Structures are given as C-alpha cells and as structure tokens.
Amino acid sequence: DDDESEFVSDIRWVRINKVKCTRDDITKVIPELKLQMVDDLSDVTGPGKCYIDPYIPYLFGLHKRDKLTSTKAYLEGSVIIQDRASCFPSHILNYNHVHTQVIDACAAPGNKTTHSASYMDLSKDPESCVYAFERDKERVGTLRTMCNKALNKKTHLLIQVTHADFTSTKPEEFPQVTGLVVDPSCSGSGIRGRAADAVDHTRLQKLANFQFAIMKHALQFPLATKVVYSTCSIHAEENERVTVDLLRDPAISQLGWTLASREDVIPRWERRGWPEEFRAIASTEAACERLAAGCVRSNPGEDGGIGFFAACFIKKDDGSKEEE
Ligand code: SAM
User: Fold this and answer.
1) Is the pLDDT of residue 1 over 80?
2) How far apart are CA 198 and CA 82, in angstroms?
3) From edge to edge, which strands make up the β-sheet containing 11-16?
4) How far is the CA of 31 from the centre of ligand 1 (A)?
5) Which of 5, 84, 141, 274 is deepest in the core (most CB within 10 A)?
6) Where does the record place the SAM-dependent MTase RsmB/NOP-type domain (predicted)?
7) 21 labeled part of a ligand binding site
8) Given pLDDT bands bounded at 50, 70 and 90, which one contains residue 194?
9) pLDDT beyond 50 at 324
10) What angle do CA 139, 205, 171 make, to 5 degrees?
C-alpha cells in the first residue's frame, strides 16, 4: 500500500516539505544533484533533470537514478518522496480553502498526513492540526517516525497521531474538523502493475465493504464539508462503485453529501472517473459525466506513476438533495 511502489517507472516524485522548508527553488534545496529544469516530463531521461509538476504545488519529477536519498534535504525531511497521484487527496482537500483541522483516517506511513500538514500555517492559525489515525501497531510506529521527520520544534503540534481504529472515533468529539482524507487499505492493484491478470472478485467485494464502512463513518463528522476518498486500486469495485454506494445510501444523502464539480477537483487533470459506473444513480449521460468529473484517476504507466483513484465528497450548504 505504500508509495515506494513496485510499479516500474523512471520518475521519482518529490515534494518540498513546506512545513520544514520555506524555500521554493528545488535546485537550491537539493544542490548536490545539480538539477536542470526541463519543460516536459518525457525530458526526465536521466539524473540531473527536473520537471515542475503543473498540478501539485511544490512537487517535482526527478529521475529515479538521482541519488536523492543520500542528500541532506532528504535526510533531514526537507523533501519527501511521494508519488504524484498520491498527492492528489490532500491537494484536493485544501483546494481553494485550507482547512484548520483535518483527519487522516488511515494514515500510515504518513504521506498524506504530512502533505495535509504542509498546507497549514500555525503562525496564521494556531489551532491547525491533522489528527492521524492508524489501527496497526507496527505501522503506527512508521507513521510517528515519518511525522517526526517531517516536523520540527516549531511545528510538532501540527500532527496528532493516535493508534486507534478510525471507526471507533466519536465524530462529536471533533467539532472543529472540517475536512477528512480517507485512504483505506485496498487491493493495491495500481501499484502492483499487472493486477488485471487475476482479479479476485470475492476479495475486492470484501475490501469494498470495508472501504464503504470507513467512508460512511467519515461522512458523519458534524462540521465536515469535504471528504476525499482514495485508493491505489484500478478496479471500479473499490473506486466508483464504493462512491456510488455511498451516494445512494439514504443516511448519507440526507446529510447533504454529493460529489464536487470538476472545477474543484484538479480541473486540468484529464483522466476522470468512469461515467458508466454512475448509471445506477444518474439518469442522463450528462449527469453521469458530471458525477464522474468529481473523481480523478491515474493509470499506472500512462500517467507518470502509480494507478490511483480519488473522489471528492462535499456537503451542500442546505443539506437538500440535488436534482439530477
Ligand atoms: N494514507 C497513507 C499514506 O498516504 O501514506 C497510506 C494508507 S494505507 C493505503 C491504509 C492504512 O490504513 C494502513 O496502514 C492500515 O493499517 C490502515 N487502516 C486500515 N483500517 C483502518 C481503520 N479502521 N482505522 C485506522 N487505520 C486503518
């Protein structure tokens, strides 16, 4: 499930950790690599070439043969390796509006936790906090290590790690949380390349049930206005179908949840959700397209990294059901 993927790609995505490093110029942040900027991702043909990602702020594409992990910036946590698509959830969450308090429901090893924290500014908003939950005992250790590395003395309060099952949290105990990132365990088929060869539908259905339950809990937080659901799976069962099942659950639609429109979900990213999967809840092609546009997909191999899916749930102000 981690972002250090088994999937073969020559690009290694790295983001400047804005919690720790105020500089924007990657060539100065990692001077050892003597980076030269290139205009196109396909120009990153070998070490020393660097591409500025147009979708995610402070994200850069380097060649995997660059000796990044021995640089000072990497060792001290000023830069963090994170696949581009895996940066989508925290970016979507904070697009147009930075949340003061957010929850990362399934946090280890902590890529999205530390990325969510990087949008916050304690000096502007002293109540800023990412509540990170992880239920696995060993993985919570990895999460703590990653968060400690990404924070410093001034910012250590930005992330609060809790070893717990997220579904056992009480939503009313987090009255200030307005946004959640939900990235539950999945088949990992977007990472393990040729997963399409042997699809185990029974396993996918079990995963989908679990993903649905975690998301249903996330959608109960009283002040939450945005919840981003994501997987590193390529299968509709874990992606659009979980999204559709949530949207047609009466308890959820009654709360006013719907999908965000494209303009709020990395609008320039071309690959969106699969419209045909929304037929169960939308009667026209246009309505299917509109719902699918509230989701983004990334294909392994084609889109510069791992296979990924994200759907952006937003709560409508009046809590009434949207007309189709
Ligand atoms: N978001 C992480 C990142 O970007 O680094 C990756 C998360 S990984 C896909 C899913 C994680 O959720 C696993 O570490 C798993 O142990 C944890 N998890 C699964 N069910 C959970 C639950 N009910 N509550 C909290 N954590 C859970």
Assistant:
1) no
2) 27
3) 36-38, 49-52, 59-63, 11-16, 79-81
4) 34
5) 84
6) 2-316
7) no
8) low
9) no
10) 55
- Please list the helix, strand and coil fractions of the chain in percent, rounded to the nearest 5, in that order: 35, 20, 45
Question: Tokens at residue 2, please?
Answer: 């981690």
Give the model confidence (pLDDT) of 205-232 as tens digits. Answer: 999 999 999 999 999 999 999 999 999 9
- DSSP secondary structure string for all residues of 258-311: EEPPGGGS-TT---B--GGGGTTT-SSHHHHHHHHTTEEEE-TTTSSS--EEEE
- Domain ranges in the chain are 11-82, 86-315
Q: Which of 65, 4, 67 is nearest to 33 (CA)?
A: 67
Tell me which of 62 and 9 has the higher pLDDT: 62
At 232-255, the pLDDT tens digits run 999 999 999 999 999 999 999 999
Residue of 1, 81, 83, 106 with the most ligand 1 atoms within 8 Å of its CB, for mutation: 106
* Percent of the chain clearing pLDDT 90 (strictly above): 90
pLDDT(70) > 50: yes
Domain 11-82, classified CATH 3.40.50.150, yes or no: no
Catalytic residue among 232, 288, 295, 312: 232
- Comparing 45 with 198, the larger pLDDT belongs to 45
- Which residues contact ligand 1 via a Cβ below 6 A? 1, 86, 106-112, 133-136, 139, 165-167, 183-185, 214
Which residue has better confidence, 294 or 199?
A: 294
Q: What is the DSSP string of 117-160?
A: HTT--TTT-TT-EEEEEE--HHHHHHHHHHHHHH--TTTGGGEE
Is 165 marked as binding a ligand?
yes
Measured in Å, residue 110 CA sits from the centre of ligand 1 at 9
Residue 108 is labelled as binding a ligand: yes
Average pLDDT over residues 142-153: 97
